[in-house]
Amino acid sequence: MYSLDIFNGFSVTVREDGVRGLAKGWAPTFIGYSMQGLCKFGFYEVFKIVYSDLLGEENTYLWRTSLYLAASASAEFFADIALAPMEACKVRIQTQPGYANTLRQCAPKMYAEEGLWAFYKGVVPLWMRQIPYTMMKFACFERTVELLYKYVVPKPRSECSKSEQLVVTFVAGYIAGVFCAIVSHPADSVVSVLNKEKGSTAVGVLKRLGPKGVWKGLVARIIMIGTLTALQWFIYDSVKVYFRLPRPPPPEMPESLKKKLGLTE
């Protein structure tokens, strides 16, 4: 049933707007998510270092999942401030026929009608959608990579070729993407309605959609987000390989902690 919804969506779009309709809103999508991605991945590395320094080596290992969650949530908070205006324009272009066809038409019109608030009225629901999404994306990816090298890959990471390491990155990214889609889908449904309806509130939209409405289209989102997340991690890791940037291996228990726990002879 859900796969039919996906194909029906494509066919309706092509029938009503032509093939060009599939690319409607491409400019705010490209600009917004490029800015968000830059902030998200960049700030994640920064916050991971900051929080790790605060915790110390031993606690960083013991509480590494919490570290990933905190660093990614902090990064996404700022990334969404960069994304919100473009997301608002994208939704308005895609969901209100005749309102505007391009970013240059949409942004001034929104500002004239509703002021600066028009671009940021969806930022709180955006945080509700994106922060849990990103926390899952980074924490799940980091721990999945760790588990794949420990239980699936038949040799240590140091003995794997760069190509083999990138395959592990892609697989871990896809697994993380599936969980991301599930965690963020209800809030995504609310944001989509909120940005296309003037004067609506997140609480009101949530009540109107109900439990069934907020989960509509989940399978399509899993396919999209799983693939997108896998590609993001693959590209991110590939860039690090190409520019010979540091690519730390999965964390190992510090020797000092092993001694405390009596794990060394």
UniProtKB/TrEMBL annotation:
It catalyses: phosphate(in) + H(+)(in) = phosphate(out) + H(+)(out). One of its GO terms (biological process) is mitochondrial phosphate ion transmembrane transport. Keywords: Membrane, Mitochondrion, Mitochondrion inner membrane, Repeat, Transit peptide, Transmembrane, Transmembrane helix, Transport. GO terms for cellular component: mitochondrial inner membrane. It is found in: Mitochondrion inner membrane. It is a multi-pass membrane protein. Its main location: mitochondrion. GO terms for molecular function: phosphate transmembrane transporter activity. Pfam families: Mito_carr. Solcar repeats lie at residues 1-50, 63-147, 164-242. The keyword Transit peptide applies. Inorganic ion transporter that transports phosphate or copper ions across the mitochondrial inner membrane into the matrix compartment. Mediates proton-coupled symport of phosphate ions necessary for mitochondrial oxidative phosphorylation of ADP to ATP. Transports copper ions probably in the form of anionic copper(I) complexes to maintain mitochondrial matrix copper pool and to supply copper for cytochrome C oxidase complex assembly. May also play a role in regulation of the mitochondrial permeability transition pore (mPTP). Interacts with PPIF; the interaction is impaired by CsA. PANTHER family: SOLUTE CARRIER FAMILY 25 (MITOCHONDRIAL CARRIER PHOSPHATE CARRIER), MEMBER 3, LIKE-RELATED-RELATED (PTHR45671), SOLUTE CARRIER FAMILY 25 MEMBER 3 (PTHR45671:SF10). Belongs to the mitochondrial carrier (TC 2.A.29) family. This is Solute carrier family 25 member 3.
